[in-house]
Structure formats: C-alpha cells, structure tokens
C-alpha cells in the first residue's frame, strides 16, 4: 500500500503537470523560443538499425535514454518509502522527495515525446518542466534551515513556474530563468549543508555539480562534437548530456537524502 504522503505528492505533481500541459495546449506559450526539428540534433540512425526501426524514430538512443528518469525517480521513491517507514527522515522532507521524484518519472515521457514528435508544444513543456526541479532543491534547503510554511513553498513554486513566461519577451528568457534557478538550487544546498556540517555529502554535492555542468555543456556542443569524430553521430553529445542530467537527479537525491537523514538523527538525539 502506498504511503499517504506519496499519494498526496502524486496528485500534486499530476495536477500541476496537467495544468502546465493545458496552458501549452491552448497556445499561451506559442511565442516562446524552442528548438524543433532533427537538424538541431547530431544523432542519426545507424545503418544497422534502419531495417527494424520504425521510420518515425529518428533518434533511437535519445528516445530510450529517457527511461533513466523513470528508473531513478522510482528507485528514490522506494528509498524514501523505506526511510519513512524506518523513521530516518522527516515527513516534510519525504513530501519533497516524493514530489521531486514523481516529477522525474513524468519528465521522462515528456522528453521522449519531444524527441519522437519534434512538436513545439512538447519542446516548450520540456523546457518549462525543467525549472521546478531546481526550485524544489532550493525549497528543500530552506525547509532544512528553517521550516518554511506551505504559503512560502507554494509561492516560490508558483514563481518558478511563472518565470518561464519571460521566454515570451526575450528569446533567451528560458536560459536566463534556468541560470537563476541553478543558482538558487546551489544556494539552498549549501545552506542545508551548513546546517548539518557532519553529513558526509561532499561526493554527492560534487557529483551533482559536475552532472549539471556536463548536462549544459554537452547539450550545447552536440553539433560541434560531430566535427571531431563520427561516433558522435550515434552516441551524441545530447545523449551524453541526458545521461549527465539523469546522474544529476540521482546525485541531488543522494545529497539531500544524506543531509536529511543526518538532520533527523541529530534531532532525535536531542529529544532524548
């Protein structure tokens, strides 16, 4: 039986995802800049695959890799359930872990639909959906330092989601918003770590930073890498960047989980 907190998180994520999808569907964000078309990607179908792959699958590896978000998100949902059962994390932390990882499970199909269909609506939703992930890390950090009220949490998530509308006024609006979100996430993580300095989370923190950098840089270099070796037409920079992004989801979970369990253990000692 699923924990009540997980069910609540599932309903919250599905509700917000549905609302965001509807806003995209009715065309409110049609003015946003988003790359569509296989010409923006380096990956091509290898000749050995053309005999059995459907014609509509233009980038097989970039399509399949998105299962990683689902696997990692599901695995950390399971880990959260175990920790909650064993009382090693706070319920407030468990709620944020569930929201973060259920969203990761939803992001995999969204990214796959973008790759397979190359429709602008899915490209916009893919970009937009990225922002709340970073804001959730910031909120987790702030809730670790001092328990924020529901009003503050909802306000910052709403601001995060609303910030994508900047892309309607500037062609680099998404990149600007994403950069701000990354800074917020790093700041929240550092504040949380300072709150629990005894937590052994240095490796996961570095892993998350390197994964984030790899995701951004390799995605930008996708078409450039092909100039150096033909292998990048099949194992593309975009593919490797997605692997970095999936690694980022994992390392962020590991970092937050380590700090959360250390904080909860410390609070239980003080109660004794």
Highest-level CATH class? Mainly Alpha
Report the principal-axis shape: globular
Question: Would you identify the regions where 5 or more consecutive residues have pLDDT less than 50?
Answer: none
SSE succession: HHHHHHHHHH
Distance between the termini: 32 Å
Rounded mean pLDDT is 92
Radius of gyration: 19 Å
Keywords:
71% helix, Rhopdopsin 7-helix transmembrane proteins, 0% strand, globular, 272 residues, mainly alpha
What does this molecule look like?
This protein is mainly α and 272 residues long. The chain has a single domain (4-271), classed as Rhopdopsin 7-helix transmembrane proteins, CATH 1.20.1070. Helix content is 71%, strand content 0%. It has helices at 4-25, 60-64, 67-85, 91-117, 120-145, 150-162, 173-195, 202-220, 222-225, 237-271.
Write the layout of secondary structure elements.
Blueprint: H1 4-25, H2 60-64, H3 67-85, H4 91-117, H5 120-145, H6 150-162, H7 173-195, H8 202-220, H9 222-225, H10 237-271
Helix pairs in contact: 1-4, 1-5, 3-4, 3-10, 4-5, 4-10, 5-6, 5-7, 5-10, 7-10, 8-10
In short:
Helix content is 71%, strand content 0%.
